[in-house]
Amino acid sequence: MTDRRPFEIVAGFMPLLDSAVLVAAKEKGFAAGEGVDLTLVRETSWANIRDRMAVGHFQVAHMLAPMPIAANLGLTPFAAKTIAPIALGLGGNAITVSVALWERMLAHDAKSDLNPATAGKALRATIAERKAGDGAIRFAVVHPFSSHNYELRYWLAACGIDLENDIEIVFVPPPLMADALAAGTIDGYCVGEPWNTAAAKAALGHIVTVKAALWRASPEKVLGVAAQWAERDPDALAALLRSLCRSAQWCASPQNHRELADMLSARAFVDRSADWIMHGLSGMLDVGGGEIRRVEDFFVPFAQAAMFPWKSHALWFYSQMVRWGQVEHTPENAAIARETYRPDIYRSALMALGVAFPSANAKVEGALTTPTPVGSMGASLTLGPDGFFDGALFDPDRLDAYIEAQKR
């Protein structure tokens, strides 16, 4: 076999903390070490990422975890078949409200502990107060097919807030969130770091809860891969996946966090203060007013099989697409969602590295309340805790029942 290296690969990315694995793969030489000539292209919106994948400008992209599923279900314009053979970490986002809204929530016993239930109860009471004439509260998320959209909705609904009448949800690119809050065009938002820290540092907003509290150990971004390219060039894809795995191991080490923050702060990447980025890397969040809160597992690049593309994750996102009327639930659509995530490619590409693989392709989300050793291939593996803040379970083998229960 002829060695075709270097493999030339162009990847789109957004300026976010969780682009770290891609950026470090390029900047620390992990891609080059696998024979990959990786070009990174910073984009300004997720819609641009989607469109440039569809027209062939990118072979791969830093992508919202539900986006490849939506593309394969035909829910987006210029939809190109996309697979997700690796995740780019767990966690990394938060929900921030304006200072004005936070002050009103404080009057209803809101606390700075990032507890979703406490914050939701205070927000519900605030909304009831606003009904006298202030209209709906407007939140922004980054894209219709994003974990931000589904987790915000899940939180609000579980706290008894009427999404039809009390909340308006709009779409804003991540770097513009704090500016939208400053302009008064939105009351709050859900976005990845460092764009929550941006509002806290500028005294524009207060972080009320985090993804790690809403659905712990859940994916935020994946590597979206053009399916035709993956079929045509599996060796290039496997080399890239190996480099991302090595990069994630490096990103996960606390001793590398300052170097990583400095790297991400460059104009070509996130283009914001390294000190802001350190909050997300360390899990020591500035929630507002200089108050620091420690968040366990705020952003997990490698531990707990953080890069494994669980089919249960894909099916939970699908269940939320059904819940919020984006797609009809059919066996065919569920199969498309399930097959978008490709643990088979992950295992095949990374087998030689000796890293731990789960032996299963799916798990019951929310079943692990403590760190738990699980069956694995390669090295030993511990998962969890995981799960939803309201104690719910998602069993992918009981998808129909889960979707039916959400209608009530």
Automatic annotation (TrEMBL):
GO cellular component, one term: endomembrane system
CDD domains listed in its UniProt record: PBP2_NrtA_CpmA_like (cd13553)
Keyword Transcription carried by entry: no
Coiled-coil region(s): none
Keyword list, A-Z: Cell inner membrane, Cell membrane, Membrane, Transport
Keyword Cell membrane: yes
Location(s), subcellular: Endomembrane system
Record protein name field: Nitrate transporter component, nrtA
Protein species of origin: Hyphomicrobium denitrificans 1NES1
Upper classification of the organism: Bacteria, Pseudomonadati, Pseudomonadota, Alphaproteobacteria, Hyphomicrobiales
